[in-house]
Amino acid sequence: MSTFGALRRQLDDAAETFAGSPGALSEILTGMVDDVDRALGERLEIFPVCHHSPASALAMARRLRDKQPQVIYLELCEDLRPLLDELRTCRLPVALQAFATELDGFPESWGPLSVVAPITEASAEYQAIAYALDTPGVELVLVDRSSDHVFQWHPREEPGRPAEEAALHGDAVGVEIGDLRPRFAELEEHLLHHGKVRHWSEWWDQYVEQPLAGADYDTYRQVMVLIGGLFRRLRPHDAAKLDRDEDRERHMWTRMREHLAATGADPERCLYVCGAFHAASRVEEFGLDAARTDFEISPRTATNWLYGLIPSSHSAIEAQFGLAPGSVSIAAATYDKAVSRGGVKPYTLKGQQKGRRPGTKPPAAPVAVADQLSEFLSKPAQRDPLDEAELLGWCVDIVRLARRNGYLSSTADAIAVYETSILLAGMRGRARPTLYDFQDAAVTCIEKDTVPGRRDVRRLCEIMLGGDRIGEVGYQSMPPLAQDVFERLAPLGYDMTKRAVHRVLLDLNADPELEPCSHLLWVLRRLMPEHAVRPIMGSRRLGERSVQESWDVALGHHQRALIELGYEGVTVEQVLEQRLRRSVWEPKATAADALQAVEEAILFLGGRRFTDELGARAVELLAAERSVDDAPDVLRRVRRLLAHYRATEPALPEWCERFVTTGYAQYCTLLPTAFVAEDVGVRQVAAMLGFLASMESLALSLGCDRAQLELAVRQSHPETPGKIALLWAARFQLGVLTIGELRERCAELLANPLVVPSFPQYLSGFVQALEAAPVLTPFVVEVISGAFARLPDEVLLPWLPTLIQTLREEAPELVPVLIREAGRTFPATLTAVDAWVPPWTAPSGPGGAEVATATGAGAAGGPVTGLLAAHPAAADALAALLGCEGGWKTLTPAGSAPGHDASGGSPEVAALVARHPATVDAVAALLCGGAAV
Amino acid sequence: MTEMLRAPAEVKYAEELDWLESVDDGPKPFSWRLSPRMVRLFVLGSERSDGLDREIPQKWFGDRSFVERAIVTLASDRGLLLIGDPGTGKSWLAELLAAAISRNSTLVVQGTAGTTEDHIKYSWNVSMVIAKGQSRDSMIPSPIMTAMEHGVIGRFEELTRSTSDVQDALISILSEKYVSIPELDDDNIVFAQPGFSIIATANSRDRGVNDLSSALKRRFNFVRIPVVTNKKSEAEIVRFRTVELLRRHNIDLELPPTLLDILLRSFADLRAAAASAQSDDGRLESALSTAEQIGVLEDAILHSNFFGDRTLKAETLAGSLVGSLARRTPEDLAILNKYWHGVVEPRSKKEGGEWQGFLEGGRQAIATLS
């Protein structure tokens, strides 16, 4: 007859009474007792725990002091062991992290892989870790599957990561010791409904945590295994296949047996700490004396795992493991209270203490297991009596906190909260109000119709009970990169560990020694999430240098991101270099990406070698490109880079020259296709033409042939209006089309009512063409003005929104150019409008050149003429070079010059000028000033 | 007892309350007829685990903690203010609580713009005053004063609808727990007996019409009742209330589950539409509460009973829904028209069944109203 025989019989009877026959129910009920029997009968002492359970933590502390084990086996990924020593320098909660970007054997889409195991102070595992690390001679062995196996055992068809958001943990997969929760929703719902509680944490607190608070070790163990057995038996049939729990148990037992065999440790002096769920395991490998099975631990993949500690917080843990908000904080508060009440002294990691060696105490003789369960299950739980002082303290504190947060609460409220807490607890069958009762009471009495501040009473209660504790990883435990960043930012005199946002001001003129800090901040800005470092003032672009900068730095808040950067390299520069290199060698990389990488390498890294390497790759990518989608980007970037190199270096880098020649040849080749292809936009073609036109002189000097471009343009036969306009502009640029012909064509378009609706597209083409032929700006202004003047209102008005939209969408950077030109063309004042004649309709002579001559004659006598007359050699040489024949004209004083220009010498004009001398004086002053400059 | 159109909860559930009182061995605060746990059980219904010999049906559907907080408030020194959108069951909960605690839920003051201090305290029977002078006999106590005298729960419906000065008359009642009658020379103070408390309700949509003063807020514990959005519990509520109404009207009519489902889904759709609307014009004027659904269903049932063939049809339900929700023309009608053609029509094609009749009935109703 086993220890639990009486209990089994009782449960059998109960099964018969409730289910009618001792069938499945009996199997479950007595099975649970069997689980307890087996777990407690095992030679290796099993310590069942539940996560975030103060009772577990306290029982662990008591048991460790009592037993002083020499080896502790812990249910935690075995490859995380080296990290545990680093916990000394951290403020909990922190999370142990395994991280991998270089995957092997896992789908690429899963990467980067990340596993986090949060550690809080109020947990049994922390007690075990602290004891083992601070007690010399004690070995701590992690026995659960490695991080690699977490993913190896992950079902392939599902995405590799859970969807929930956990602010501090990112999207890592969480692992936790002692996950003890019903494995299907209906059971949990049932328990909550009949337990008359709102969420799982409250159920646990009321039905397990509190009754176990003062329980002895045997009762604790038996109850925990019983609950583990219950959840284990009540779960969907196929769960075992999915959650790999049994594989983990096999893994743990195999590892423990291996360790015992290798070290020869005495099982009596060992302790196996695992979740209660695993304590009730029924796998064949269970127990030290189990027969060998064919279970083999599969080898790890070649994935390169990196390890580190990242800060964690109560709320991140709650979010990741689906716990009710505030439950971890409440568990921490309960634990702190139990500790302060005395009775048990918990272990804490405090540097390497020279504690006494274990083993001075002889191992206690194994005590026969006595049935504590029957009593526990049949008697109402022994609850703590009302702790009046504590409850009063809470009431006063919450009222004070509420007042600070804008509530009109007073002492009367404190009294009401006190009374309501007790009444609520009484109604819910508790002698002593729990924190949940207190929270409800505070909400009832203090919360009114609106929340005056940012936080409501429920949140204030959580804050009062310790709030969301956020961990911090100590400097020593940080990866070299993070340490390096903190060291290099030290001149800014800011405590990088503070979580608040810190404003940093850099006056780089006054303190040039801060230049490296500014540089580092820019690199961090490039590498880290948006709000980690944010420039308020100052910018970093090619050809710019900030004199003053101001930054919002929140590195303390983004410690995790910084630590994860540390997995990629030893310094931020190295990480950036790797990332840039990776970006240009990606299969999808384009020439524009490579040029961007070059730009960033110049800005953040300097050094010719690396930029040349990236540049060479850009040339390769450009030559291999068959699409011109990125042409606008390429043009913008290469222009910027050329300008940069021309301004800073004696000669262009070799890759730049190759880029220009390759681009010239490439775009010439692609131009005819691009003109007709439907999927290539006007903007792209314009950018190609822009490249060809603006790089032409450089390309020709490097050996390209202009005939290639001429042929390409001749081969182009676009059909869409926008591209036709572009082609005209290109032909004008090549000198094939004159401005007069262009003007004529536009006039024809405007005159043809069938084409008028597509005129905006022509217009958009002309605007885009400015990229390639900036000299056309006055013409474009003319065309737009012509359209406004000639179109009837019924056509023009519905057009205008389209026009604005077309300009805004397709030529945002060219609009200012147009506006400037329009400003030059149109009169500035209202009065001048009446007399204004558009330049393009102004009566002109037989040819443009003669008009120019006439204008020149009209301006005779100015300082420019004087200058030219005084030094004729330069003009003569230019004229000879251009093949311009004709000599110098003799100057006569203005106003009296006879000649073919009637306006120059007309008495009306002279009279007008004499009547209004101010204008002429102003112009003269302007010209003189200009000449002086 | 004479027949009543609608019996108050304490009459309707008298037998159940008697039984609960007979088995209740828990501690009872003041002069309460039931212990707080039994009050909770009366409101929320019993379960097997409660170990009672008979089943107590659930009467109010909502979160358990709201009821617990409300009961506990009544056992404390403060008044209870139930706040929430119209149709969320505030008054029903108040009635149930008053019936369970003091077996009298009829001591009600209805807050309106015309409510005066007399309605809260006392007024005088003028002819008696002329005949006999001012005395306790010629005084007409308000329901609240009566509740004080008997140590029972008084109710104040729509507290924020009455003006601020009237509301503030409650301050001294809730603090000092007595009302003085200065007109009388002796016996001029009415003290509240133990067990007296006030359950007030306020409509969160009208908040700000006559906002409560801080002094009064302080004397009330607020329990906010949210709109029921859980489909299962909403179906429960609608069925529960409708059955009750049918019984009241002595109508023997089956409520087909498919029609109930159509009603619930339509309301859920319209709520979602209201939530995503940009302006008030895109939102129905109705709060689309559970009570509104009950109203629609009741209307449809009565219509089928008296003008139809005594079976509830989807067409009738649609007509009743349009009729109840189209309050503003053209805005509400336009929204309903959009809903009918954008949601109901495709659904009737896809799912068929009763939705087709619902589509037809709705179309006709909209056409008639347009």
Q: What is the strand arrangement across the widest sheet of chain A?
A: 1-7-2-5
By DSSP (H or I, 4+ residues per run), the number of helices of chain A equals 43
The CATH topology assignment of the largest domain in chain B is Rossmann fold
Largest sheet of chain B: 5 strands, parallel
What string, H for helix and E for strand, traces the elements of chain B in order?
HHHHEHEHEHEHEHEEEHEHHHHHH
- Report the radius of gyration of chain B as a whole number of Å: 23 Å
Question: Features of this protein?
Answer:
heterodimer, A: 933 residues, alpha/beta, four-stranded mixed β-sheet, B: 370 residues, Rossmann fold, 16 helices, 9 strands, globular, ATPase_dyneun-rel_AAA (chain B), CbbQ/NirQ/NorQ/GpvN (chain B), ATP hydrolysis activity (chain B)
Topology:
The complex is a heterodimer of chains A (933) and B (370).
Chain A: H1 5-19, H2 24-41, E1 45-49, H3 54-67, E2 71-77, H4 81-84, E3 94-100, E4 113-119, H5 124-134, E5 139-144, H6 147-152, E6 173-174, H7 185-195, H8 200-212, H9 217-233, H10 239-243, H11 245-263, E7 270-275, H12 276-279, E8 306-311, H13 314-321, H14 327-340, H15 373-378, H16 388-404, H17 411-427, H18 435-446, H19 457-464, H20 480-488, E9 502-507, H21 515-527, E10 533-537, E11 548-553, H22 559-565, H23 572-585, H24 591-605, H25 608-624, H26 631-648, H27 654-676, H28 682-694, H29 696-701, H30 706-715, H31 721-733, H32 739-751, H33 759-769, H34 777-790, H35 793-810, H36 815-825, H37 830-835, H38 848-858, H39 863-870, H40 872-882, H41 902-905, H42 907-915, H43 917-932
Parallel strand pairs in A: 1-7, 2-5, 2-7, 4-6
Antiparallel strand pairs in A: 3-4, 3-8, 9-11, 10-11
Helix pairs in contact in A: 1-2, 2-9, 3-5, 3-14, 16-17, 16-19, 17-18, 18-19, 21-23, 23-24, 23-25, 24-25, 24-26, 25-27, 26-28, 27-28, 27-30, 28-31, 28-33, 31-33, 32-34, 33-35, 34-36
Chain B: H1 9-12, H2 14-23, H3 36-44, H4 64-75, E1 79-84, H5 90-102, E2 108-110, H6 117-120, E3 122-124, H7 126-132, E4 139-141, H8 143-150, E5 153-157, H9 164-175, E6 178-180, E7 189-191, E8 197-203, H10 214-219, E9 220-225, H11 231-248, H12 257-276, H13 290-307, H14 314-325, H15 331-351, H16 354-369
Helix pairs in contact in B: 3-4, 3-5, 11-13, 13-14, 14-16, 15-16
Region (Disordered) (chain A): 346-365
InterPro entries (chain A): DUF5682
Organism (chain B): Nonomuraea cavernae
